[in-house]
Amino acid sequence: MAGEKVKEIGGMRRGRGQRPKVKNPGKLFARVMGYVLSRYTLQMIVVIVCIFIGVLANVQGTLFMQQLIDSYILPMLQNKSSDFGPLAAAMTKVAGFYAVGVIASFTYQKIMIYVGQGTLLRLRNDLFVHMESLPIKYFDTHAHGDIMSIYTNDIDTLRQMISQAMPQFLNSVIMVVSVIASMIILDVPLTIVTLLMVGVMLFTSGQLGKRSGKFFHDQQASLGSLNGYIEEMMNGQKVVKVFCHEDAAIEEFDKRNEALYRSAYNANTFANFMGPVNAQLGNLSYVICAIVGGILALNNIGTLTLGKLASFLTFNKSLNMPISQVSMQFNSVIMALAGAERIFSLLDETPETDDGYVKLVNAEIDKDGNIIETEKKTDIWAWKHYHKADNTITYTKQQGRVDFLGVDFGYDEKKIVLHDIKMFAEPGQKIAFVGSTGAGKTTITNLINRFYDIQDGKIRYDDININKICKGDLRRSLGMVLQDVHLFTGTIKDNIRYGRLDATDEEVIAAAKLVNADGFIRRLPNGYDTMITGDGASLSQGQRQLLSIARAAVADPPALILDEATSSIDTRTEKIVQNGMDQLMKGRTTFVIAHRLSTIRNSDCIMVLEQGRIIERGSHDDLIAQKGRYYQLYTGNKIAQ
Amino acid sequence: MEKSYDKISLKAAALRILGEVKEFKKDSILTPVFMILEVVCEMIIPFLMSVIIDKGVTAGDLNAIYRTGFLMIITALCGLTAGMLGGKYGASASAGLAKNLRASMFRRIQLYSFENIDKYSTAGLVTRLTTDVTNVQNAYMMLLRMFMRAPSSIIVAMFMAFMISPRLASIYLFAVIVLAVFMGFIMSRATKYFTATFEKYDALNESVQENVSAIRVVKAFVREDYENDKFKKATENIYRMFVKAEGTVVLNMPVMMAAVYTCILLISWLGAHMIVVDELTTGQLMSLLAYCMNILMSLMMVAMVVVMVGMSEASAKRITEVLDEEPVLRQKSDPIGTVADGSITFDHVEFSYAGQSGDPVLKDIDFSVKSGETIGIIGGTGSSKSSLVNLISRLYDVTKGSVSVGGIDVRDYDIHKLRDSVAVVLQKNELFSGTILENLRWGNENATEEQCRRACEIACADEFIERMPDGYYTHIEQGGNNVSGGQKQRLCIARALLKKPKILILDDSTSAVDTATDAKIRKGFSDELPDMTKIIIAQRISSVQSADKIIVMDNGRIDGFDTHENLLKNNVIYRDVFESQNGGSGDFDEKGGE
């Protein structure tokens, strides 16, 4: 609960596609590339080679256009000959190059699909697997929307970068380099003029980018503000209706909507300027080159001839497109890097540590009363304890005894929320926690299964320090029914079976019967095969809760934690469920949290918590006799009688 | 999967969306006009370039270069101006359309009655107002800027090419037709693949969402590996589908390039022949080659725009669905403005939710309540307690029979006036971001601080508010996340009290409040507000047993309507609930209750 609050407060809404500020773009880019290359080194080399071939084929085509006029057409015109033989030969060669170029381009694009999608596949899997290994604390401190947007927005921008922006960027860069190289070969002074103009182009788009970046930032801010408002109003739409607050809602909405229009208009205007400005600067560059070149050639300054000038102008023209593409792609790369930063920061989170070595194994008891490990499925479980000191293995029968010895805990180290918790649960006992919201009831149960690690003290399970037990085995031995029910997409049967994957259909049905869920399940259109979607939205709260109890029942764990398991079931239904619950609790150590006192009065021991401390403990009768806090709570229940 | 908005035709959706352009019509028309102007300038430039080559460079005439260069700069400036204006108007038109769409949808939703709201999920409405609008906005901008630009670019370039040489230009015409057919084919196939893939992709994201929110369940059952396997299988699947979809799109590329290159070669070859026999100049050949690129690139652009606009089709339909949703509740033309008192009469009421099949939710409900009485309602989950009280403030309309407040059918009242007199504290209640005082003033915007304080005292909210650092000026986070469940409920009660209603309905509104405080609140009601009719839905018997009368609901029917004492004697269900809450483990059980 406390954790949930931290998450909500800390959960700042992140604007989608916000103009990002990446701290270390070079390093990040290298990391992304490393990630891609680690698996696709060969493919990437082929891709680069193919891009190179493709560009060269294109450039040689451009070069040929020049030769077409200078070396073939003009000589023919001068000689008045009509021998097309040399031209035909040259064109066949060019056509050959073009064909190679097309094949190369196609090849690299085809490979990039596999590289791009393959990398994403791996990235998604790595992200998910890593996420599953993170401690609960991570989920407490990160807004779920933010985690989700890593999978959707960030991965998507990265996908675009890897499979589109990067190859195109590479393509453009190689194009620019080879065109500039050809230009230098033709004429150096004109190349300098052209490069100056390129500088102007880059500077202008930079300026425009900065301007539109500022407006995009504004747009994100107003979009965030409007979206927040929309979300809030849609959530509270019924309240708005009940309070006749529609006009006030519209008024506020209009204000924010207008602000968004303004900033979106500005941002997009500047972004739209980029294209025409670059194109016309390119044309300007062409004119300037023509004039400068004309002056140079006609006055015989330098080595420039008119034929060379014509070729040069062709190159000048073919430079414009890739240059403006480079600046465009550069933007999308920066965007993607911001996403990559978030992706890697999730991947860099430290996973839940598990230093446990005590394992839970199936066991048999032989004639002499010794516990023996077995492969068979038995009803007896034992803790397999390996002692490093003398290299021996001992087995302890798993019984479900839980001891808390002076436990202190805080979600962050500075703020302790549980103080000096001492408690002993004998196998098979029912221990209840009562107290007001925020007293620390749920927190205590989350310590038993090590969702959180304690700051001080010791928790022992069957006299073994729980830090020594493998987390998986520890949790497997504890069934949990949580306050918030979560169901998974799948059939009812799948959901119950979640508790034990190898449970047979009969076992699933038996578990449902045990907790009295069988009745409503059979009334569903497809019975146990009814599909559940959207966290079981089509079921009532009580029905969902019953399923989650059945899920714990099928797991058949030696110890149970019931955190407000019946709070959303009405008292009459609860009475029916209670029988099932009593069946379920029989012979198991059970920790119960409830605010309904009728649920807990038959517990072996009731702990009354207040502000993280156990202030009273004892059986119902003891506590009533004490006339303390429990007595107050209990009689408060009947205050109006 | 069949979606509710699928039956809206594309044409209807497009018309509905375009209807929201409104004051941005001028901008929407100017954008393509300027874009075409830009295209014309852009097409003149290759021509001028060829002039520079022919008349200037080849002929060695510097003056011709100056002259043509000057013309070219003028043209470029015109192109620049047109391009920038087109960009500006395009931005304005699309941002404006988005603004209008949002405003219209939001206004429409404010008109919705509960039945309409039930039809959509909150998340669904939020998506329509945000993501879907953004999609349509982007598509509209593309449409205005590119869709006009690209075809006109093709036409102008084609025209220029034909001006130069009809014979050579006909090669382009042929190439354009072949390519258009081919790309149309590829794109339509690719769109199909992509649609299928994106659906799977959404499903994948849903499963991530599920895992994030249910992480405690996953960990409690040690199902990390199981979830990992499940996820990997799904991603594998998506990988294969994406590879297939992108593999189709990638076919465009070689065909496109082959077409460009073939055109270049053909034009060069034939052009060379024509130059030799003086039918063509070298400059003209150069500009023909320039147009080649222009034409085929524009064609590519058209294909892209079609795909992009196509992708926003679903968004457009979803928006249209919201805009076309008819509010279910209609107000009479001459409604009654004042509610006389807090009496309530249900006259043989039957009620079903829209689109619901099977038994009605409420059957033959018939009872009356005098003004000022306190009525408790108790019953199991799904026994339609909430449905019953929702009819009083006309959040829904009855299917049969009638509900009257103050002696007049609720359908005859002005809805706002009725709801101001009947305050409901909903089961799923919400606070809004803002100070506590601002939240309270939802009940009455002119309430003084003193009045707010008074309401909070009755609702027992004053004690915790005063302990907060900023008291009544404490900021409430979105959704009321920084107050506890019980505090939220008490604030909601106080907010309802500020309306000074004639009837107050508490729909399980004190479930998170401890029993002592609960009792105090009820005592406050009867001491301070004796004339107000109070209807209290509760799970706990203790919350209702002091009421004047208690309704016992069971499966949509009234099973009992009497005082606590009489119900204990005569009503099986009531006695059952009472015992389960007070009898406990059998300590004080009367043996065999019935």
Q: What is the residue-mean pLDDT of chain B, rounded to a whole number?
A: 84
What general outline of chain B do the C-alpha atoms trace? elongated
Distance between the termini of chain B: 52 Å
- Per DSSP E runs of 2 or more residues, the count of β-strands of chain A stands at 16
Q: Ranges of chain B with pLDDT <50 over ≥5 residues? A: 584-594
State the largest interface.
Answer: A-B, 156 and 157 residues
Q: What topology, given as strand order, has the largest sheet of chain A?
A: 10-13-14-7-15-16
Give me the secondary-structure category of chain B.
Answer: alpha/beta
Number of helices of chain B: 21
Task: Report the portion of residues of chain B in β strands.
Answer: 5-15%
Radius of gyration of chain A: 36 Å
Distance N to C terminus of chain A: 33 Å
Total beta strand runs of chain B: 12
Can you put this structure into words, describing what you see?
The complex is a heterodimer of chains A (641) and B (594). Chain A is built from 19 helices and 16 strands. By secondary structure, chain A is of the alpha/beta class. In chain A, the strands form four sheets. A six-stranded mixed sheet of chain A has the order 10-13-14-7-15-16, with helices on both faces. In chain A, a hairpin with an 8-residue loop joins β5 and β6. Chain A is elongated and about 120 Å long. Chain A starts with a helix and ends with a helix. The N terminus and C terminus of chain A are likely disordered. In chain B, β9, α18 and β10 form a beta-alpha-beta unit. Chain B has 21 helices and twelve strands. Chain B starts with 9 loop residues before the first helix and ends in a 12-residue tail after the last helix. Chain B has three domains: 316 residues, ABC transporter transmembrane region fold (Up-down Bundle); 186 residues, 3-Layer(aba) Sandwich (Rossmann fold), CATH 3.40.50.300; 71 residues, 3-Layer(aba) Sandwich (Rossmann fold). Chain B has 594 residues and is an alpha/beta fold. In chain B, α5 runs antiparallel to α10, α5 packs across α11 and α6 packs antiparallel against α9. Chain B has a six-stranded mixed sheet with strand order 6-9-10-3-11-12.
